[in-house]
Prior knowledge:
Helices cover 74% and strands 1% of the residues of chain A. Chain A contains 15 helices and two strands. Chain A has helices spanning 2-21, 25-50, 59-76, 80-102, 107-126, 129-132, 155-178, 180-190, 192-197, 202-228, 233-236, 239-252, 259-277, 284-299, 304-312; strands at 138-139, 230-231. By secondary structure, chain B is an alpha/beta fold. Chain B has one domain: P-loop containing nucleotide triphosphate hydrolases (Rossmann fold, 3-Layer(aba) Sandwich). Chain B contains ten helices and ten strands. In chain B, helix 3 (93-101) runs parallel beside helix 6. The radius of gyration of chain B is 17 Å and the shape is globular. Chain B starts with a strand and ends with a helix. Chain A binds chain B through residues 180, 183-184, 186-187, 189-191, 193-203, 255, 318-322, and chain B through 48, 50, 69-72, 74-75, 79-80, 82, 86-92, 95, 98-100, 102-103, 129, 131, 147-148, 150-151.
Amino acid sequence: MRQDRLIGCAAAAVLAVLPLVFDNPYTLSVVILTLLYAYLALSWNIIGGIAGQLSLGHAAYFGIGGYTSTYLFLTYGLSPWLGMLAGAVLASAAAALIGLPCFRLRGAYFALATLAAAVILRVIVENSHELLGGPRGMEVRLLHDAPWYFQHTRKEFYYAVVVALVAVALFANYAVLRSRFGYYLTAIRNDEEAALALGVNARRCKLQAAVLSAALTAVGGTFYAQYVLFISPDKVFGGHLSVQIAVICIIGGRGTLWGPALGALLLLPAEEVARFVTGGAPGAAMMLYGLLLMVVIRFEPRGLIALARRATGCRAAPRAGVEVA
Amino acid sequence: MLEIDHVSSGYGDVRVLHRVALSVEEGEIVSIVGANGAGKTTLIRTIMGTLPATAGEVRFRGERLSGLPPHAVARRGMAQVMEGRRLFPHMSVEENLLVGGDILRDPARSRRLLDWVYGMFPRLRERRRQLARSFSGGEQQMLAIGRALMTAPRLLLLDEPSIGLAPVVVKEIFARIPDINAEGVTILLVEQDVRRSLKLSARGYVIEQGRVVLNGTSAELLANDGLKAAYLGQ
Lengths: 325, 234
């Protein structure tokens, strides 16, 4: 774990000087989005990686976060900072509601059920014309420089916020991995029946992991709404987003502390390059994700972090890394 | 201590156990023997609550277990060593053991149990930082037994501990079973190796096609002509 602290300090140092290096708005926005996806992949990692439950419906929580804070802001003038907390609470409730029936299912069936839950939510939002703007989405009212209302004209503001979010998510993962709860989740991922036979309440553990993961993801949704100042069902509830979050984490290294962030660090810039090279051809990004996913699963199912470990000769911690079944 | 009162169970429409009745008294070692597919593992899974009983009931220390999930059964003092070991491959030996010990939530007691298990299987202590998946079959079986013992069980269900192991390793592992029993752990041993298992236990039940067809003291069973012909090749 000394190693983790070293990497953490190095990452913090790089993040501190990054906005000075990338001072043009375009590059900085790529950096911000990369960090947002690192945050989302880390949030997903708690249930999808450490606990090994392949959720393909995390857009549901992201969307709940964005829509809750935006709705409360537009309707009651509530600061999105508070709306963010409300969104996290709502997403937690949704995760419990989705998890209760879905955790009876295993493997691909669980993945499909979470996917379906996200699609249902999207359809509901698309049909809520009066309340949530329907398919056209909602615009966050412009207040310009209002940090207390989670808005600013300078990108550096969002950069600082997203760096803090990544730090929180990293700490959450670290704390889970080091705790008794983390042992239980790893045991469940390895062999649920054996864990049950040892007295581990698998359903409760999975539910707690899902709730924590959903709450964190919802906060990311609020950040997105405040950063882009516009949300629509296809952007924040889309299956595309759910898959993207999961794939980033899997390519980086499921169930590890640094894998999810590493995945985002490589994939988001690569996606940007692909967009540039293909002249913005639709679907180019998804093709890139699919290709990389196949290559990684074929040659190193434990993810890029395992490659990095091998290259640097660092021994993997016993509980780090997981085969994709 | 354990009463299985005319229990039936199965998978979907397939009924595997037919009104099985047996009992285990505190402090005993009891064998359940039978061929492949007789329903031995199904019986263990039904006792543990992994598989619901469709009829009859299981009582443990006077309490009905019907409907309890397996983790709740485990917390009442029953531990299961599953067929095929089923270790946590991404954890070290000690981490595997501590998942078992964790249900006690008492670090001092976990520590004592850990020492007890290491005393019984010294090889686990030597290799405690290694990943479980790097182990030989015999070492994995020791770890599986050790992990179950970490829950400080009153009753230990051993499902085919000899499966897939070299005879010399089986001997070593079976030698530990009376030691475990001597520490106050009641043992229900499910085995295909009829002779070895009956020699260890005082009593036994023979299961065929999901039914108890024979029961008695181990000496009686070993002398039974039908059993001799069917399982002992005599």
